[in-house]
Amino acid sequence: MATVALGTLMGTMDASITNISFPVLTRVFQAELTTVMWVALVYILVCTSLMLILGKIGDLIGRKKLYAGGMAIFTLGLIACSMAQGIGQLILFRILQAVGAAMSIACGPAIVTEAFPPEERGKGLGLLGVSVSLGFILGPTLGGFLLEWLNWRSIFYVRVPVGLITLFMILVLLKKDRARPGRIRLDFRGAFSSSAGIFCLVLGMSQINKFGFGSLVVSLLIGFGLLSLLVFMFVERRVEEPIIDLSLFKNRVFSSAAWSLFLTFVAAPAYILIMPFYLMHGLGLTASAAGLLMAVNAMTTIVVGPISGSLSDRFGPVWFSTIGAAATAAAFYFMRGFDLETHVTAIIPVLALLGAGIGTFQPPNNSIIMGAVSKEHLGTASALMATQRQVGLSLGMALAGSLFTARRALFQAELLGQGLENDYVARLSIPLAFQDILLISVFVGLFVVLLCLFSGERKMSTIETGKVEPGTV
């Protein structure tokens, strides 16, 4: 558990620790912000697009080998990034880092699922969720401290010892892989079409805020991404050893839980992306105060996650995932009451409710997904969850950002027509547009509640039976 948690912490931390260094990197390398942003974007694109195929490779050659190789490559990438002499080199070395992170993250939940007995699976995945939340909290915090006291290279080389310790733990503590009998066959057509599809889809969605929904660049990227994924589905139906066994989605348990996970992350950016604007530009809080306030959500998730995982093992995951989804939707609804007069003491309980909802939802939901597949597909299911998380966040970010910008411009025009001052209009338009975006998150959250109710338990986990019965509840 500790071995996988450390690797997951390193991977999720790296997705957020570089963002805070953008102002420094633009000054040091004398580069435009649009260029520097690729330091983070290329990491997300490469990591997300490779997870599915790497999860399958882990099922074929062994998860310990893939996890160890990923941590070695990731640590090597940290060293290389800390020695970069230009922005181009830094972006190139971030690709190397992303490959290593994808190898580690893709098989982490699968290793935990196989290590814990079925009756403790929720507890194990709940503890793993703590490392994910810690990574997102520690990334900006540690990055800010290192940038203030050392330099930008420190955000990479300071973590090298942790990578080496994790690699040592992997080699010593993880159970040796069992060799898979027979000849190993890899679906290269499926690997290429899935990676290309996810890469173009995520890249296209990330460019919506820059070019707009109807732009040619965005349309071509998203269109090619969707076409590649359709080709992937066509290929997977006809190969002997598919990357994803599409028959899994005929299983109501797996399908409902997987879609509810995806939609939860689609709804999340309404909070992740827009809440900082409301707190800093609407209420006038400082960046440090806003960051501390938003940490309430993550800290509550860290506390509630393991408890929810343990209780779901005892009483069943369906009701806990449903209650968590309902609490998340309720938190989004209560956020719609935020305005320019809302006091911090009224915001904290709502953010705590959101953290409690996410912490209650994720461990049992992940347990349902991992428990609905056989041991031979654990790596694929693990990688699928990580892919859904990132694609859902990318889609949600694009939608929330574009809709927030459009609605805010509309409210500003209406308020200026009423003769209000420009500064007040700029502040007032933020909560008004925020409330509209949150309404979409509320409806998505309610739909997730319904999906959770459909992800009914079976009497015996497929990890124990070794098979999946489509449509079984």
Structure description:
The protein has 473 residues and is an all-alpha fold. The protein contains 21 helices and no strands.
Task: Furnish the topology, listing elements before pairings.
Elements: H1 2-17, H2 22-28, H3 33-36, H4 38-61, H5 63-82, H6 87-115, H7 121-149, H8 154-157, H9 160-173, H10 188-206, H11 208-211, H12 216-236, H13 252-267, H14 269-272, H15 275-282, H16 287-315, H17 317-335, H18 344-371, H19 378-417, H20 422-454, H21 462-465
Helix pairs in contact: 1-6, 1-7, 1-9, 4-5, 4-6, 4-10, 4-19, 5-6, 5-9, 6-19, 7-16, 7-18, 10-12, 10-19, 13-18, 13-19, 13-20, 15-16, 15-20, 16-17, 16-18, 17-18, 17-20, 19-20
Brief rundown of the structure:
With 473 residues, this protein is mostly helical.
> Largest sheet, if any?
none
Structural class: mainly alpha
Instruction: State the helical fraction.
Output: over 70%
Number of helices: 21
CATH superfamily name of the largest domain?
Answer: MFS general substrate transporter like domains
CATH topology of the largest domain: Growth Hormone, Chain: A
Number of DSSP E strands: 0
Runs with pLDDT <50, length 5+?
A: 457-473
Query: How many separate domains?
Result: 3
Attribute tags:
single chain, 3 domains, mainly alpha, Growth Hormone, Chain: A, disordered C terminus, 473 residues
